[in-house]
Design brief:
With 327 residues, the chain is of the alpha/beta class. The protein has twelve helices and 14 strands. α1 runs parallel beside α7, α3 packs parallel to α4 and α8 crosses α12.
Length: 327
């Protein structure tokens, strides 16, 4: 298997699906002309390979998503790229009240097979461009939400999302585009709604997703030198959420920490904690702990930005506290 970047894995998924299905199109802000492939270069070169099917749109998120919804209802499979997840706020009504609800409101006679791709998280883009809306999006019935952490998962999940008959919001963390991992040259799919064990361990369960998987794996490697083995579960899909591996893991380790980048209060981590304690309460030797971002608007200064979001050291500190029975 070749080792490629997260960015390249996404591009390969798009290329394969465009070649496979003539109804797949890609629309977005500055994805053709700007820099030859968008702000993050995911679509670089695709416009030449698939003339007329990769299109720049006006900077009007409500229109982009709205047009894609209508096209999807008519049989096209649009993949729309929003330059940042923060701009999804402009299209919130289209996402929540239209894309997510059409299948239900038409009694199952209409599908909306579309994908909304967008980067989230920090990257020295300040308070209004560095947010995580995974909890908001995952709370909406009718919408599927995916947030892969590795190039392998990014490719397999994006291909499945494009083939899915429901609207899928596909979250890509800004800090992951340049990360590298092994990806098969042959075609493969990863089903939506299936979690994955990224590291086998016996002492403590860590449940996470997105960028925080990378930080958790760094923490796990360091903790292993101390004799502490983490069982690391990557949710991958946030709606529908598969907690079967996490519950199985808690029954083995008897302790758990949920790690997320987003704000702690009313965050997705709280949902995971509640679900674990409902399903595995009698197996827990301590309350499920959380590692999360600080509840402040994101600063622009690099040192303050890094102080706002969790890293591997924060995971290590939480593990040490739990293993010392400080929770």
């Amino acid at each position: 298997m070749a080792e490629i970047t997260y960015r390249e894995a996404l591009k390969r998924a798009l290329r394969e699906e465009l070649a496979r299905d003539p109804e797949v199109v890609v629309w977005g802000e500055d994805i053709v002309a700007y820099g030859g492939g968008g702000a993050y270069a995911v679509t670089a070169g695709l416009a030449k390979e698939f003339p007329g099917r990769i299109r720049d749109t006006p900077i009007a998120e409500e229109a982009i998503v709205g047009v894609a919804i209508g096209a999807a209802m008519g049989g096209v499979r649009p993949v729309v790229e929003l330059m940042t997840i923060n701009f999804a706020l402009v299209a919130w009504d289209q996402i929540v009240n239209h894309a997510a609800k059409q299948h239900h409101m038409f009694n199952g006679t209409i599908n909306v097979p579309m994908v909304m791709r967008s980067p989230a998280g920090f990257g020295r883009t300040a308070a209004t461009h560095s947010q995580n809306f995974d909890a908001w999006l995952a709370s909406v019935p009718g919408l599927k939400v995916v947030e892969p952490a590795t190039p392998y998962d990014a490719k397999g999940l994006l291909k499945s999302a494009i083939r899915d008959n429901d609207p899928v919001f596909f979250i890509e963390h800004l800090q992951l585009y340049g990360t590298r991992g092994e990806v098969p040259d042959t075609e493969y799919l990863i089903p939506l709604g299936v979690s994955d064990r990224k590291r086998e361990g016996k002492h403590l369960t860590v449940v996470t997703w997105g960028r925080m998987l990378v930080e958790t794996m760094k923490a796990a490697q360091k903790l292993a030198t101390e004799g502490i083995e983490l069982d690391v579960i990557d949710l991958r899909t946030l709606r529908p959420m598969d907690l079967s591996l996490a519950i199985e893991s808690v029954k083995k380790t008897n302790r758990a920490i949920v790690v997320e980048e987003g704000w702690r209060s009313i965050g997705l981590g709280a949902e995971v904690v509640a679900s674990l304690q409902e399903a595995a309460f009698h197996y827990l030797d301590a309350p499920v702990a959380r590692v999360a971002g600080l509840e402040v608007p994101m600063p622009y200064a690099r040192n303050l930005e890094r102080a706002t979001v969790p890293f591997a050291d924060d995971v290590i500190a939480a593990v040490h506290a739990m293993m010392a029975n400080q929770y």
